[in-house]
Amino acid sequence: MHKILIQQTIGLFLLGLMCCHAHSENLVTVSWRIKAPYQYLENGLEKGFLLEQTKQIFALAQIPTKFQVEPAKRIWNNFAVDTKNYCSFDWFKNPEREALAHYSNVFYVTPAYSVMANQSSATQISAHGNLTALLADTQLTLGLVDSVTYGIELDETIKTSKNKVEHASVLPMIMARMVAANRASYMFIDKREWQHLKEKDSNLRDTQIIDVKGIPIGLNSYIVCSKDITPEQMQRINAAIQKIRRDKN
């Protein structure tokens, strides 16, 4: 009798381990890049309305998750090496990335980009009537954040630029400081992001936002997941996105 009880106890213990292991395999890591005010850290606390919306979506989809902050370059490297049970959010589509990940339905429509300029370059930038003229100016330096796409149309237009280009693997807020310090003449940023950064960082108080004709209007943003995420899981994510968007309208 004692031997049977021991065997039953061991069996239950092993079953518990198997259940825990199965649960850990189903846990999806949702990595996100810092992009205030959409998703960011403040005093170690996770904030931002897109971050909260994403948490709601995965909760509605009944997919267990853990959220973590990672640089944009690392996130896409993780997709490139086929990291399992892995998702991220607030990304535009382009062919290279569509080959690496499943894309959800439209998650969010971003505001159109504007140009953030420093005091030294604002007048020269404002004198250009459109995006084509701005990018043709060889005296200006465009600051670009590596591993960030500005949407297919703007990305392709930037490739034709005659500006000098300052590439940097930094957060957008750091690139904004680089523009403010005249290490670059301007960068592309949306007004909401600029306003938030300006309120938080005194270094940006003398920067200006300039609307330039020819910049594409708001772009569709998506949740992206590794290829091992099943079609059924993606369907649940899409259903949750649709519910949240419907509830907001």
Shape: elongated
What is the name of the CATH class of the largest domain? Alpha Beta
Major sheet strand order = 4-1-5-12-6
How many DSSP helices? 10
Question: How many strand units?
Answer: 12
Structural class: alpha/beta
Overall mean confidence score, pLDDT: 90
Percent of residues in helices: 40-55%
Gyration radius (Cα, Å) is 22 Å
| Poorly predicted segments | 1-25
Distance between the termini: 65 Å
- Percent of residues in beta strands? 15-25%
**CATH domain fold name of the largest domain:** D-Maltodextrin-Binding Protein, domain 2
Strand and helix map with partners:
Layout: H1 2-26, E1 28-32, E2 40-42, E3 45-47, H2 49-60, E4 65-69, H3 72-80, E5 86-91, H4 95-98, E6 102-109, E7 114-117, H5 122-126, H6 131-135, E8 141-145, H7 152-159, E9 164-168, H8 172-180, E10 186-189, H9 191-200, E11 208-210, E12 220-225, H10 231-248
Parallel strand pairs: 1-4, 1-5, 8-9, 8-10
Antiparallel strand pairs: 2-3, 5-12, 6-12, 7-10, 7-11
Helix pairs in contact: 2-10
In short:
With 249 residues, the chain is α/β, with parallel strands linked by helices.
Keywords:
D-Maltodextrin-Binding Protein, domain 2, five-stranded mixed beta sheet, elongated, alpha/beta, 42% helix, 10 helices, 2 domains, 249 residues
Please, could you describe this protein's structure?
The chain is of the alpha/beta class and 249 residues long. It has two domains: 2-110 and 220-248, D-Maltodextrin-Binding Protein, domain 2; 114-210, Periplasmic binding protein-like II (D-Maltodextrin-Binding Protein, domain 2). Helices cover 42% and strands 23% of the residues. The chain has helices at residues 2-26, 49-60, 72-80, 95-98, 122-126, 131-135, 152-159, 172-180, 191-200, 231-248; strands at 28-32, 40-42, 45-47, 65-69, 86-91, 102-109, 114-117, 141-145, 164-168, 186-189, 208-210, 220-225. A five-stranded mixed beta sheet has the order 4-1-5-12-6, with helices on both faces. Strands 9-8-10-7-11 form a five-stranded mixed beta sheet. Strands 2-3 form a two-stranded antiparallel ribbon. Strand 8, helix 7 (152-159) and strand 9 form a beta-alpha-beta unit. Helix 2 packs across helix 10 (231-248).
